[in-house]
Every structure is written in C-alpha cells, then in structure tokens.
UniProtKB/TrEMBL annotation:
Every RNA polymerase sigma-70 domain range: 82-95, 257-283
Protein name per the record: RNA polymerase sigma factor RpoH
GO CC entries: cytoplasm
Annotated SUPFAM superfamilies: Sigma2 domain of RNA polymerase sigma factors, Sigma3 and sigma4 domains of RNA polymerase sigma factors
Region entry Sigma-70 factor domain-2, spans: 58-127
Transmembrane is among the record's keywords: no
Protein family membership: Belongs to the sigma-70 factor family. RpoH subfamily.
UniProt motif Interaction with polymerase core subunit RpoC: location: 82-85
Subunit structure: Interacts with the RNA polymerase core enzyme.
Keywords, alphabetical: Cytoplasm, DNA-binding, Sigma factor, Stress response, Transcription, Transcription regulation
Cellular localisation: Cytoplasm
Sigma-70 factor domain-4 as annotated region, ranges: 233-285
Molecular function terms from GO: DNA binding; sigma factor activity
Amino acid sequence: MSEALALVSNNLPIPSALGSLEAYISATHRVPMLTQDEEQELAERLRRDSDLDAAKRLVLSHLRFVVHVARGYQGYGLPLGDLVQEGNIGLMKAVKRFDPTLGVRLVSFAVHWIRAEMHEFILRNWRIVKVATTKAQRKLFFNLRKSKKRLGWLTHEEAQTVAKELGVPLATVLEMESRLSGRDVGFDAPSDSGDDDAPPAPVAYLVDHTADPYQTLANDDQEESQLESLREGMARLDQRSRDIVTRRWLRDGEKATLQELADEYGVSAERIRQIEANAMKKMRALFVA
C-alpha cells in the first residue's frame, strides 16, 4: 500500500502546479464528495488490493476539506498554500492508515493527521519559535539585549560593535535585532486595547476541535452551491427583473419599496410586485431542481 500512496502523492494537484491558489481551491471543489458506501468500498479496495485508483479517489475527494482546515490556521501569518500542502501530507498518511471496519468516516479520522502536519509546519516556521535557530543566532539571543546601550533599534555603529564583540557577521546582528523587536501576543489578550496595529490574540483564530468537521464541510459546500444557484438564477433574468430583485432583497442597507421602483420605471406598484414574484419563481426553480 505504501507504494500506491506514494504514486498518488506524486500525481496530486498542488497550488503551484495550477498557477494560483484560487485555481487550486476551485479545482478541489469540482471533485465530487463521496457517499459513505462509496468511501467504504474504496477504502476496502485500498487495504485489500493496494488499489491506486481507490487511493487517488479517497484523497482527491477530501482535498477541499484540507483547504477548510488550513483556513483556520491563517492567523499564524503563514501562506495558505503552504498550509494546504502540509495538510495534504497528513491526508495521505490518514488514507494509508484508515480502517474502514471501524465504522467512522474518513474525514473524522483524517482531521487529526491533517492538523498534526499543519502544527508541525507552524512550529517550524512561526516567528517566535524561529527567534534563534543557528549557533550564532542563539549566541545573539542571549547577549544582544545586554549589549545594547539603550532601548529601541541599534544604530549602525552599535550593531558593528556587537558584531565584533560576539564574532558574528553584521547581517546576523541586524536580522536578530529585527526578530527581537517583534511583539509577542498573549493567548487571550483583549481585542479592545485600542491599538489598531496590534495582532489578534491566538484565542481569536485557533481551531475549534469540538466541531464536527464533516458537518462543517457539508454546510460550506451547500452554502457555496446555493450561492452558485443564486448567481445562475440572476444571470437568467432580464435587466429590469434583476434590478428589482437586487434592490428589494440583495442590497445592504435600506431596501427599495414597490412604490419607489414603480415611480422609477413608470408602472404601477402592483406591476413591480408581479415582476418580482415571477423573477423569484424562476430562481426558486433552480434551488429545488
């Protein structure tokens, strides 16, 4: 099975291969979601026969869920595309270890592996963790502040002096000075501190581990489908009907009244109501189709 999963991973779409993250996300939403019976059958084929096609379908059908999980970690300031790729690795590991006889959906099992890979990536790349990584940087970390004569940024002369005293390149001193000048954030720091430049506290963007990942994904998928139906329905209306529906139902703020639209179009308020009702009937047909 390991060889089959390796082949699948080499053929997975990644953001860079599609030219943009938006194109990748759009592609993942075009992959159909599996029913529980389909998922069970594919998982059994993978475990029994190391079926490459079964593994590929299991992975591809859950790529959109990896994107969903990755969005929950954007508060760490890391590129979404990188988080997605790390999450895809976790998804591959989950597919490899998934046991269909346990009676759980793959998404419920995979979420832990996906998050684990993202957590490892964040720990390797988040600023606070990377303050001191090399030997020279560790030396600077413990000696730089006591070498400064005052608070604030080092002058060029001070930086040169520190570099000479500690035996490190000037560029290393300047890099560490930049890192140490960054501001850390308390886990539950109040959001109403009045500092517009203050980053959000981690408690504001950490993932809710008690949520049902499958239900969340299903709800997001349904909402996106409904929005697409709404856009399609609006596109089928004539200009007047589209304007009436938009101003009566879709515009933020105060909605237009029937009489206001009647005066503008030179017809009765009853005629505007009829146009609105016919337009809503046409669009409603797309939602129940």
